[in-house]
Amino acid sequence: MSYTFKKARGEEIGGSFLDEASLDYAKSCLEKAGDKIVLPVDSVITDSFEPVEGRKIEVVKAIPEGFQGVDIGPESGKLFASVIAKAKMVFWNGPMGVFEQEEFQAGTKAVCEAIKDLEGRAFTVCGGGDSAAAIKQFGYKQNFSHVSTGGGASLEMIENDGHLPGVDVLR
User: Fold this and answer.
1) Given this structure, which CATH class describes domain 74-162?
2) Domain-wise residue ranges, the chain
3) What is the pLDDT of residue 51?
4) Average pLDDT over the chain, rounded to an integer
5) pLDDT given for residue 29 in this prediction
């Protein structure tokens, strides 16, 4: 999702995933929300999604052609942790990178650690099958108030009024 927003902001994203149909919507969100939308400031990139010998992996600010973003970089991990540390509620949908590959797990683990550091000071929801799989794989499931495999559906439900009825009942 972040690459669509970054492209809407005019940044280079190389061959990273882009939801071209949502570019105008992303631009509109950026215009309305301004600095409330926090995007990665650096990315882990690779020239091969497949774990082949000799593939290049780098941390960069702008993603050149021939590369794709596969995780947030270390500066983004620190930035996201600083934002999460101030939160009273966290609704997390989507891992930070291709967590299934060891080289691209650091961003997702950084967000998990930041949520763990909240230690009951915030209501935290992990939504989406990939996110749920990541927190289970890394041993952070117990650090969330609620875990759901309903990612996109959950986001759609809270889009208009800011509430997820099933989660409200749990509170």
Assistant:
1) alpha beta
2) 74-162
3) 85
4) 91
5) 94
Task: In whole angstroms, give the CA distance from residue 124 to residue 84.
Answer: 10
Q: Which of 5, 7, 12 is nearest to 30 (CA)?
A: 5
Q: pLDDT of 5-29, one tens digit each?
A: 999 999 999 999 999 999 999 999 9
What's the pTM value of the predicted model, to 2 decimals?
A: 0.87
pLDDT of residue 126: 92
Residues 6+ apart with CB under 8 A from 111: 77, 80, 81, 84, 92, 96
pLDDT of residue 151: 76
What's the length of the chain? 171
- The token duo for 15 is 């061959």
